[in-house]
From TrEMBL:
Its cofactor is FAD. The electron transfer flavoprotein serves as a specific electron acceptor for other dehydrogenases. It transfers the electrons to the main respiratory chain via ETF-ubiquinone oxidoreductase (ETF dehydrogenase). Heterodimer of an alpha and a beta subunit. Residues 2-189 form the Electron transfer flavoprotein alpha/beta-subunit N-terminal domain. This is Electron transfer flavoprotein subunit alpha/FixB family protein. PANTHER family: ELECTRON TRANSFER FLAVOPROTEIN ALPHA, ELECTRON TRANSFER FLAVOPROTEIN SUBUNIT ALPHA, MITOCHONDRIAL. Belongs to the ETF alpha-subunit/FixB family.
Length: 327
């Protein structure tokens, strides 16, 4: 049996990436000759959720209930998943590659001693059980063999498109109340708050983005860069160093842990082009790098580059734009 942890939204629906994981499980099931797929959800699912999972091919929906499951705890969810797995004999344990999915599966891996592959995008065969997964924030792919059972892996978001099965599953609801040790409840969510409003929208959809990195020099070093951004009607996008130092707000960050941008023109000034920054800007159609180091990765990858001090080059560009517009 293939066991898939399905995360449920506050509205009581299976989240899209979990439905993608179930869709991925169907391919595995077919490769294994029709291995049944069971889902584990935390809490009491309503009929609509059970029906949705059945539509996606799920045979049984195991609902983990009890006070231990009132709030998220990676260890407690893993204990529940393990209890269902031992009772029902799963050979594969999966989840969506969300922060929670990866955390819970890491606990399952630690408890079983089996390796866990995070953010898998495809599987290459059952013997040996081989998967391909994203590493370095999606910048590289790695092939991994999962020789032990259960095979444990999470599915990277949007690696497959969630879809209904040709033949729906039975969708039988099984209520589970597994024992959870006190030690598994030590780290659990005690309160939640609404996320801050997403202010990065302009950055993600901009045609031109002016970038600024450590080369700006200090929190006071952004004057001419902001001026260039205003002249080009472009938002400012910055590196993580800049946000970590508190020079600019986090919603301006570009990269693996910031916004992914795809403008017609990106103008990174004083940004080295570390792989985590590149992950967020590599879709730019053209890059004009301004940097004092001719060997900086951003310079070597750029469409065009100006080598020198940004505090001299950017004011000169601003001046030229103003002069041409005045003319
Ligand atoms: C898990 C993880 C996630 C991360 N996520 C992100 C992310 O989302 N986004 C991100 O940006 N980083 C991210 N990082 C950090 C990343 O590895 C780099 O440390 C960061 O991008 C470097 O920022 P920087 O280019 O501004 O600084 P530096 O690497 O220090 O580069 C500064 C550049 O400025 C140039 N320079 C200096 N002075 C001048 C001047 N006067 N004029 C012109 N050029 C000048 C230098 O030649 C150099 O190329 C992440 C790191 C980790 C480990």
């Amino acid at each position: 049996m293939i066991l898939v942890l399905v995360e449920v939204s506050p509205a009581g629906e299976a989240i899209e990436t979990s439905r993608e994981a179930v869709t991925f499980a169907r391919d595995l099931s077919a490769a294994g000759g029709g291995v049944p797929i069971d889902a584990v959800v935390v809490g009491s699912p309503d009929d609509a959720l059970v029906k949705t999972l059945a539509t996606h091919g799920v045979r049984r929906v195991h609902a983990l209930t009890g006070p231990a499951y009132d709030a998220f705890s990676g260890a407690a969810w893993a204990a529940g998943l393990m209890a269902v797995r031992e009772k029902a004999g799963a050979v594969v344990v999966m989840a969506a590659g969300t922060p929670r999915g990866n955390e819970v599966l890491a606990h399952v891996g630690a408890r079983t001693g089996a390796p866990m592959a995070a953010n898998v995008i495809s599987f290459g065969g059952l013997s040996p059980f081989t998967v391909t997964r994203q590493v370095v924030g999606g910048a590289a792919l790695e092939e991994m063999q999962l020789g032990m059972r259960p095979a444990i892996f999470s599915v990277a978001g949007h690696a497959v498109e969630a879809s209904a099965a040709d033949v729906p599953g039975d969708g039988e609801l099984v209520v589970e109340t597994p024992e959870v040790a006190d030690a598994d409840l030590v780290a659990r969510v005690v309160s939640t708050e609404e996320p801050a409003p997403d202010l990065s929208g302009a950055l993600k959809s901009a045609r031109v983005v002016v970038g600024a990195g450590r080369g700006a020099g200090s929190a006071d070093g952004f004057g001419e860069l902001l001026e260039l951004a205003e002249l080009l009607d472009a938002p400012l996008g910055v590196s993580r160093v800049v946000t970590s130092l508190g020079w600019r707000p986090h919603h301006e960050q570009v990269g693996q842990t910031g916004s992914r941008i795809s403008p017609d023109l990106y103008i990174p000034c004083g940004i080295s082009g570390a792989i985590q920054h590149w992950a967020g800007c590599s879709s730019a159609k053209a890059i004009l790098a301004i940097n004092s180091d001719p060997d900086a990765p951003m310079v070597t990858k750029a469409t065009h580059a100006v080598i020198g001090d940004l505090h001299e080059i950017v004011p000169a560009i601003n001046e030229e734009i103003r002069r041409r517009r005045a003319g």
